[in-house]
């Protein structure tokens, strides 16, 4: 009996760690302010998604046309991803409730974790498409600078907190 309880406790810890680790990987990519969420740390720090776009435009030297196209890309992405965020938030909550209940069996937890994982994969695909669209409107020099800013180490100038690789 003790062995089974230890195994259950270990499994619960592993599942919770996997779920919370995956959640923190996307923590900075929640809905923007005004869309039911608090937005990412960097957006809050700089005054929201529009301020982030202004900062990025300044750092990359975007033209007015590029700014307008980037704004359209990001606004369309936010609108398209809003239902996905709501589903992901709900499924994560359900997973946490199952894990915390202490009465859920392994297949139920695995099934719920699979739902969360599938939604996270969908979101990653959407973010990848949005990034490709954004990179397509940049000049090669701007694209190189954008990639360098995204990969800056912690604490370096231009590092974007909450947006780890």
From TrEMBL:
Keywords: Periplasm, Signal. It holds the Pfam family LTXXQ. CDD domains: CpxP_like. InterPro entries: Cpx_auxiliary_protein, LTXXQ. It comes from the Bacteria. Residues 1-27 form the signal peptide. It is found in: Periplasm. Belongs to the CpxP/Spy family. This is Spy/CpxP family protein refolding chaperone. It comes from Geomonas diazotrophica.
């Amino acid at each position: 009996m003790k062995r089974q309880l230890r195994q259950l406790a270990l499994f619960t810890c592993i599942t919770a760690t996997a779920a919370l680790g995956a959640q923190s990987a996307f923590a900075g990519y929640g809905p923007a302010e005004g869309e039911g969420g608090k937005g990412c740390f960097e957006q809050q720090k700089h005054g929201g998604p529009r301020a982030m776009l202004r900062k990025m435009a300044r750092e990359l030297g975007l033209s007015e046309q590029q700014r307008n196209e980037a704004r359209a890309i990001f606004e369309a992405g936010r609108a398209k991803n809003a239902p996905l965020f709501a589903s992901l938030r709900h499924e994560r909550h359900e997973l946490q409730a199952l894990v915390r209940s202490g009465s859920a069996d392994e297949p139920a937890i695995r099934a719920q974790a699979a739902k969360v994982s599938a939604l996270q994969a969908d979101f990653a695909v959407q973010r990848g498409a949005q990034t490709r669209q954004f990179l397509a409107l940049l000049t090669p020099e701007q694209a190189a600078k954008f990639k360098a800013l995204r990969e800056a180490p912690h604490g370096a100038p231009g590092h974007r907190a909450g947006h780890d690789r």
